[in-house]
Amino acid sequence: MTTALLRTAEALHARARVGRRAVVMTMGALHEGHATLIRTAREIAGRDGEVVVTVFVNPLQFGAGEDLDRYPRTLDADLKIAEQAGADAVFAPFADEVYPGGEPQVRISAGPMGERLEGASRPGHFDGVLTVVAKLLHLTRPDVALYGQKDAQQLALIRRMVRDLNFGVEIVGVPTVREEDGLALSSRNRYLSAVERRTALALSQALFAGRDRHAAQEALRARAREVPATRARAEALSAIGESRAAADAHAVAKAAPATTSVPADVVAAARIVLEDAARLKPPLEVDYLALVDPSDFTEISDGFTGEAVLAVAARVGTTRLIDNLPLTFGAAS
Length: 333
What we know:
This protein has helices spanning 9-13, 32-45, 75-85, 95-98, 118-121, 125-140, 152-164, 194-224, 231-238, 243-254, 263-277; strands at 4-6, 21-26, 50-55, 89-91, 144-148, 170-174, 284-292, 306-316, 319-329. By secondary structure, it is α/β, with parallel strands linked by helices. Strands 1-4-3-2-5-6 form a six-stranded parallel beta sheet, with helices on both faces. Helix 7 links the parallel strand 5 (144-148) and strand 6. The longest helix is centred in the middle third of the chain and has 31 residues, at 194-224.
């Protein structure tokens, strides 16, 4: 198939539509993570549907001193990747197509949810994100739009905007794609030197440590509910055979069986990895580490049950990276 390059909404609207239109929004510099989004969109749209990939570097979501000017622009390569992944069209508008008359005076506010974590570190960032997403949803008129779960807070805000403002579009989140060493795929990875990349691996390693701690605790709690509240409980828990679980066995045995693992312990396990990375050369400079409720990105407390997101952001040299993992607390896990 040949992927069409479209520069105007008029050209996009002129295309005949039969089935569903699935849109993947990007800022270009496409990689395997984007290709996975496009392939998923192709599956959702089906043979009779249409997959449109947007490529637009949105100036509204870059703050002062951020990397707008050096953000990679690789449209020719993006077209090839989009075509290979199954896109029917790439919509790559110029700035005056998206923002006629210059910088918009009316914007979408991300509200309190957009002021936490990424929003606290990058004031106004999510206002710019939601404004351009709303514009591109109107310009592309999709039935379904797909976004990566690596940008978990962005995905949550887009879902909230679509629900709160009655956009007639389905939002689909696609799991994070990682490289073999665990680093989450990102257009900004290309900024990392070899030694910086080794330090950057601490982001995913910290999340994996938190996930492992969570899994061990959930296993302990489940086993604790099955055995009597005596010394036998400690022996039974130790029999699980997992070293960290065995180390915790006595403490769990003395406590009343809980219904969920302890969020603070999950965060602590991840923080140990980050603290070690802070002593590397070059060091990892942590912006935040938090275990949050994905519905509003507030931090969860002990006793929480349901879906959660363990999120981290840090800087290595001049490159800022984010990552996250979903976790489930309680019986459902």
